[in-house]
Design brief:
Layout: H1 8-20, H2 23-30, H3 34-48, E1 53-55, E2 60-62, H4 64-91, E3 95-102, H5 104-108, H6 110-121, E4 124-131, H7 137-143, E5 148-152, E6 160-174, E7 185-187, E8 196-199, H8 200-210, E9 224-226, H9 229-237, E10 242-246, H10 250-253, E11 259-264, E12 269-277, H11 284-317
Parallel strand pairs: 3-4, 3-5, 7-11, 8-9, 8-10
Antiparallel strand pairs: 1-2, 5-12, 6-10, 6-11, 6-12
Helix pairs in contact: 1-2, 1-3, 1-4, 2-3
Length: 318
């Protein structure tokens, strides 16, 4: 028999009476009149086709059929309440899965820290990191492969929005024993003849764009391009080359023992941005994380810079 006309209120009425053994007590619990409770019970029994309770003048007890039906009714109401909680969590950005793309450095340093902090407030939101090369960040957001992306500034086109989060200067990373490590600052012309390894075509193009206004005689180009930034750091750590990267890679670069030197004449700044789709709406959980991550990245960058300054001051004292 189909039970499509049975309401949640009728199930609540049945379970309240079964628990309290009283129609008036069930009415008080549900905030209804006793006559309304009796009407809801009668309607439910009509739909089911059997009596749920045996009534006496002093007490209402479950009938044999009512006892058999009780576990199913409890299960239904439990699932309904779970669905209500799930909807409430989703509506309030408190549950769901968010797919975030980021290149290796941000995916291994900034994002894990951001996820840990976000989880302390939104423990039911699952953030999945998708390692993505810089060149594919915008495309993957546009195609729906990921919900959001975090990475260096790229042309976003008409399908993706790009919201800058913080600025990061391009700097030189080299081994402590490299000749350029003795410089407080490095000029682009100082890199003439120095072996440079770049990470991916994005870095190679970035260097070319940075030097577009520099006299031809002062321009430099990478002598080698590798796919992974850790490979570039490894080569630089052995002194066989230097590498160029934004300053925000510091946390990872220092694990290779590399030192950072500013590059001037000109100094070039790169923005880290949050990318999101324009042609489709984000889920509430993704909207919530998008609102969080932009401001969080700004704080992360400030904290990273302060840590670098303290470390530099400590080395100076030593």
């Amino acid at each position: 028999m189909p039970l499509t006309r049975v309401t949640i209120r009728q199930y609540e009425t049945f379970l309240a009476i079964a628990d309290l053994h009283s129609i008036s007590a069930a009415a008080d619990r549900l905030g209804l009149t006793s006559s309304a409770i009796s009407q809801l019970l009668a309607e439910l029994e009509t739909e089911l086709g059997f009596r749920l309770f045996d009534r006496t003048t002093r007490r209402v007890n479950l009938s044999s059929a009512g006892r058999d039906f009780l576990p199913a009714a409890e299960t239904i109401l439990r699932h309904v309440r779970a669905a209500e909680q799930s909807a409430d969590d989703i509506r309030n950005h408190a549950a769901g899965t968010v797919r975030v793309g980021a290149p290796l450095v941000l995916a291994s340093t900034a994002l894990p820290a951001a996820i840990a902090q976000y989880a302390s407030h939104k423990p039911k939101v699952v953030i999945r990191i998708f390692d993505t090369v810089v060149e594919q960040l915008v495309e993957r957001v546009a195609n729906g492969d990921i919900d959001l992306a975090i990475g260096p500034d790229r042309p976003a086109g008409s399908r993706v929005s790009c919201e800058p989060s913080f600025d990061s200067a391009w700097v030189l990373w080299c081994a402590p024993g490299h000749p350029l490590a003795s410089h407080r600052q490095v000029r682009w012309q100082d890199l003439r003849g120095v072996p440079i390894v770049a990470t991916g075509r994005d870095h190679e193009r970035g260097v070319a764009q940075m030097l577009a206004d520099v006299p031809v005689a002062s321009r430099i180009m990478p002598v080698e391009v590798v796919d992974n930034v850790t490979t570039a750091f490894g080569l630089a750590s052995q002194g066989v080359a230097v590498t160029l990267a934004p300053a925000y890679v510091a946390q990872l670069a220092r694990t290779f023992g590399l030192v950072m030197r500013r590059i001037t004449d000109p100094e070039t700044i790169r923005q880290v941005c949050v990318y999101r789709p324009l042609e489709r709406s984000l889920s509430p959980s993704a909207e919530g994380f998008a609102a969080f991550i932009g401001a969080w990245l700004k704080r992360w960058d400030r904290d990273t810079q302060r840590h670098r300054e303290r470390a530099r001051s400590a080395r100076s004292v030593d």
